[in-house]
User: Fold this.
Amino acid sequence: MSMIEVKNVTKRYGEKAVVDNLNFEVNEGEIFGFIGPSGSGKTTTIRLLTGVITPTEGQVRLMGEDPSHQTSKMRERFGYLPQLFVLYPNLTVRENLNFAGSLYGMTPRARGKRIKELLGFVELTEAANRTATNISGGMLRRLELAAALLHDPPLLFADEPTAGIDPVLRGKFWEEFRHLRSMGRTVFVTTQYVGETEYCDRVGIIRAGKLLAVDTPEGLRRSALGGEIVDITSDNLTPEGVHMLAQLPIVHHLQTRNRNELRAYVTEASQAIPALIEVLTTAGCSVSGVEEYKPSFDEIFIDIMKREDAKDAENRANGNGRGIATGGANAGS
Assistant:
């Protein structure tokens, strides 16, 4: 079941398209990461999905309904963790949560039980009676997360939830997101931290309002690399051995790192490794090391951005204006 459907969505302010022809779906029970640099359109997309703003063109469906005409029942089915603190600074931590729960129609008894659970999770039990103005920025972020989860919604929107918090708390946030997923909940999370890609089930990459790719983390890696990578070490690597490797159909590209090391770009590492070893052995090369290399998602992201820069430059050179993402990448899932 699709929790979110976005079809040909564009949002303009005047002549400027802040997001341009977005197409993707988010499935029930998955963590969907929306990744891009500052100003790329991540927050605008979340505002479109939650019905805060309406698209200039295209259609958004949230749990099968138009979020711009949502009912109170629909609002109770999703939580929203925005970038900026939006609770009440002069209320205590507990009072903020109590007020948030009342807005969702929770009974005092239900609120009390849930608030106790969440205060423990976000590690604010000892700060429960302190006003929001007297807690740290990290505590405020944890308080906002608790407020967004208070009514136990099936769908959570989290806009830059880990921005400006320490690595330990960042891990705690992702632990809770995974816990929500295990319960069948859906999480839509935006982030500038490219390394957080690996915590998501699927990822959309956005730049300058355009969706460049939607795929699983592993799918993004394979797409960026054109396959997988195998690093080979040989103490007596010969030109003949390198030439024989290059002739293999499974090898797309060979890169010499130094006189004893090769990097092979292959279709699938697990199937390629035995063949690579066999060819080198036949050529009289001893193999002292073979392992699959998986670049970080920072490297993958940089590679995708470089390719888009190259497309932009080519389009400008051809007089076509700014380059746009291909239909296949923008089509999402």
Notes: The domain at 2-220 is CATH 3.40.50.300 (Rossmann fold).
